[in-house]
Amino acid sequence: MNEDSSRVPQKHGLKNEWSLLVHSFIESSDQEKERFLEKIYNSGLTAADLKSHAKIFSQTRNNLNLRIEKIKTEIDRLNSVTANLELVGSDSESLQLQIEKLNFEGKSLSLEVFEVEKKIKKIREIADVMASSSHSTL
Fold first, then answer.
1. Cα(29)–Cα(122) distance, rounded to whole angstroms?
2. Burial of 31 by CB count in 10 Å (0-12 exposed, 13-18 middle, 19+ buried)?
3. Are 45 and 22 in contact, with CB atoms under 8 Å apart?
C-alpha cells in the first residue's frame, strides 16, 4: 500500500516535468526545437500526454471565449441603457466609462485566446512530428 502511495507523487512530478517541457517547446525558436524534441522523446512523453495538454488549453480557450461573450452581452446591455439615457437627456458618462473598461478587458481576453491558440497549434505540431517520426522508425 505504501508503494502505491509513493508512486502517486512521482507520476504527478513527471506530469509537471512534461508540462514544463511542452511549454518550453512551445516558446522556443526553431533552432532549439530539435533539442527539445529529443528531450521530449527521452522524457517518455506520449501522444496521450500531448492530447491531455491540448485538452487543457482547449478548455482554457473555451472559458476565455465564454468570458468574452459575457463581456459582449454586458456591453450591448450598457449601450442600450446609454441610448435610453441619452434620449431622456440624462448623463451617461459613467456608463461610457464602464463600456470602455469592458472593451479593454475584452481585447485583453482576445489576446489571451490568440496566445492559447498558438500553444494548441504548437502542441499539434509536436504530435504530428512525433507521429511521423514514430511511423518512420517502424
1. 12
2. exposed
3. yes
Q: Using alpha carbons, list the distances in angstroms from residue 25 to 32, 79, 113.
A: 8, 43, 19
Query: Can you spell out the DSSP letters for 45-74?
Result: --HHHHHHHHHHHHHHHHHHHHHHHHHHHH
Per-residue pLDDT of the chain (138 residues; tens, 9 = 90+): 444 444 334 445 555 556 666 666 565 555 566 676 677 777 777 888 888 989 999 999 999 999 999 999 999 999 999 999 888 988 889 999 999 999 999 999 999 999 999 999 988 888 887 777 665 544
**What is the Cα–Cα distance from 46 to 36, expressed in whole angstroms?**
14
Using CA atoms, how far apart are residues 16 and 22, in angstroms rounded to an integer?
10
Place of cell 502505491: 4
Tell me the pTM. Answer: 0.67
Which residues, including other chains, have CB under 8 Å from residue 73's CB and lie 6 or more apart?
none
- What is the DSSP secondary structure assignment for residue 39, as one 8-state letter? H
